[in-house]
Please model this.
Amino acid sequence: MRKRKRNIAGLLVVLIILFITDSLILCLSGMPRLENAMEQRYWEGMDLLDKYRENQDMVGWLQIEGTSINYPVMRGEKYLHRNFKKERNASGSLFVEEDWSSECICTLIYGHNMWMYGTMLNPLHKFKEQDCFHRNRKIHFYVIQDSGQSAEKRTYNIICCSKTSIDEWNYASCQYISSAEELRDFLDQCKRRAVQAMDIEYESEGAIVLSTCSYHVKGGKGRLLVAGIMTGRTDQTKIDVQQTRAEESQKTD
Model:
């Protein structure tokens, strides 16, 4: 009887080890390699419309000055765990809601907090620090228009970095704002929750909100938001080369 119990216990141990091993393999196989996670950054200088012809789910391109945030923006939550090529990938893509329109007064863009690599929207967490917040304040969003016939570069000034949770505030409703008054009310709500904010008056024809995970709330419900107001728009299809690239090359010389 004792021998039988030992055999059952040994079998259970083996099964547990196999389960843990299989889980680790599955998890690691889904993790992006570092070179894949950084690959999108080297699309700088390319024509946005050429990329759109490869995948018409792309709605634009996002850059934030002074950071490594430099990625295509896709349409729909299906890109939560898929890359530009529609391949399964733990990093996923930056994305807007399925019903997003280039005419939206407030654009909401989601992205993973890939803290292990410092990629996707993870660098937003640097804006919690006063020095970084006041040094880097420009967001560029290149928006594809006219079914891929043209594109527009929209520039935004960052006005606040805020912490919230999906239980505490339905911030996602910002994408349905339909008036300047509603936009001001929403941005005021952002500033009330801000860890960093610019004490300025703002009147703008549009805004952008970037959302990623934050671990200040348990259960995966915490969110970090960075909001900016539009300051300019120009017709442009070519993706700018980030200033940080030039700075990096100088460091390596």
Observations:
- Confidence is low (pLDDT under 50) at residues 11-38, 244-253.
- Residues 2-30 form the longest helix (29 residues).
- Residues 60 and 94 are 10 Å apart (CA to CA).
- The two ends are 73 Å apart (CA to CA).
